[in-house]
Structures are given as structure tokens and as C-alpha cells.
Amino acid sequence: MKHIYLISILASLFSLLLSCSEDSDALQSYRQDLAELRTAADGVASDLWLDNGKSVRLLNPIHKLTPDSIYRVYTVYTEQPEGALLSSCSLVHSPMPVVVPTQEQQTDPLEVLAAWKTERYANLLLRIKTMSGSRHSIGFHLEKMNTSAAGKTTLHLKLMHNNQGAPQHYSSETYVSCPLYELAPIDTVIISVNTLEGETLWTLF
Question: Is the pLDDT confidence value at 49 over 90?
Fold first, then answer.
């Protein structure tokens, strides 16, 4: 399935564990957010871009990333008067929506624990049956995009999932985001998902 990108269920593709003092751990209030890291021409991410559109300066910038790139990440950090101090940061699988040929569309069932939309992403928290060391394919098929007479745009997606024949020994949870920022402004996203109970439609505003 060449249009769908492989993800690892057991481990993040990208993980940064950043030092924190033991004395401060008990005093700090940690935040957990999906966000963006945007790198400059030197490959350094100096700010954390939150889904509410605000950015926070990183007190521990991340170096040696791909220049002029956007990374979708799950972060754990503390807010300081001068900015944000990252405790951990891992990649979130975020494939662009593409048109997948009918013969390549595979939708092995999974569970959707949560679904929501931000200005730049449609987001899913998934629970997938898997086994140790297995890899699954996740992607988004772009079915159609409609604009109403009132000028409101609705994006119709289908979640692609190939479990690669992995035995279903236990469940693992993972975040997946679908970027919307390269499309026209999207008011509503409707995602079709093959769940354990059959096809389910999620409407995100």
C-alpha cells in the first residue's frame, strides 16, 4: 500500500528525553499537548506551536532536525515564566490525505477512543489490536471535499488501516493526526472508520 505510511505501535519513531532535576519534578505541573515543532533553516526548533495557535519559546531547543520542516509531536512539558521546558517529545503519525486507489484500500478494524478537530489537524486517539514488534499501516483516503452554497467546506476522509497480519494479542493506543493546512480552509471533517462494531462516521467541527 504505497500511499500509506508505516508506524510502530510499540515505540515512537522520534523520541527525545530531556533532563529535569529531581527536586523540581515534585513542584512542577506538567502539561501534555499535541503540538508542532517548526524548524528554521539551521534545523533547530526553538518554539512549541500549540493547537490554539499560540507559540511558546522552548527553554531547551531541539537541534539537528530537518531544516524548514514541521513535526507533529506529543509533548510533556512544564510552563516557566520564560517559556516551556520539555520533559519528553515524540512524533505523532500525521500522513497527508491522499486519494488511495480502490484496490489498495484496506480498513482492518480498530477502536476510536477520541476524535477532534483543530484549525490545522483532524486528530484521532486509536486503540489497535497488535503484538510485540508488529508494525501497522495507517493513512487517510481523501474521498471528496464539498463546499456549500454558504461557503462552508466539508472534507470527507476514510481511515486506512493495514494490520500486516499481526496477531491480536493485546491492545495499544496511539495518536494519529491528519494535516489540513495544505487544503482549503476546512469547516467540517467527516471520517469513516471501520471499527469492531462496523463502519462509524465521526463528524468533527
Answer: yes
Q: In Å, what is the CA distance from 35 to each residue of 14, 101, 150?
A: 14, 31, 31
Distances (CA, A) of 188 to 14, 119, 124, 144, 202: 30, 10, 15, 12, 10
Confidence band of 158 (pLDDT split at 50, 70, 90): very high
> What is the distance between the alpha carbons of residues 106 and 87, in angstroms, rounded to a whole number?
37
Which pairing describes strands 153-162 and 188-195: parallel, antiparallel, or unpaired? parallel
Kindly list the distances between the CA atom of residue 167 and the CA atoms of 3, 82, 106, 197, 198, in Å, as whole numbers in the listed order: 23, 48, 17, 19, 20
End-to-end CA distance of the chain: 30
Residue 15 in this model has a pLDDT that exceeds 70: no
Cβ neighbours of residue 138 closer than 8 Å, sequence gap 6 or more: 4, 5, 7, 93, 95, 126, 159, 160, 161, 176
Lowest mean pLDDT among 7-11, 78-82, 193-197: 7-11
Give the integer Cα–Cα distance in Å for 52 and 86: 18
CB 124 within 8 A of CB 114: yes
The chain-wide mean pLDDT, for the chain, equals: 87
Between CA 77 and CA 32 the distance in angstroms is 7
pTM as predicted: 0.85
52 grid coordinates: 490554539
